[in-house]
TrEMBL record:
Pfam families noted in UniProt: DUF3574 (PF12098)
Identification of the protein by name: DUF3574 domain-containing protein
Superkingdom, taxonomy of origin: Bacteria
Length: 64
């Protein structure tokens, strides 16, 4: 998990800045994994009463 700063535009049109958390999850790009990530994102949004929660899906290759 990484700390970050986020911003969004409030209902009055003004920008609001707040702390953000970035979670890196490495998994196979299966339809089931994507569905699970979307479900987690939605549960987080509802639980913490967020207007929006981002989800970035990116293919990559790593060697160790």
């Amino acid at each position: 998990m990484f700390s970050g700063r986020g911003q969004w535009r409030g209902p009055d049109g003004r920008r609001v800045h707040e702390a953000a958390r970035i979670v890196l999850i490495v998994t196979a790009a299966t339809p089931e994994a994507v569905a699970a990530l979307r479900s987690i994102k939605e549960e987080y949004r509802e639980h913490f009463a967020q207007g929006a929660v981002g989800l970035v899906l990116q293919r990559s290759c790593a060697l160790f």
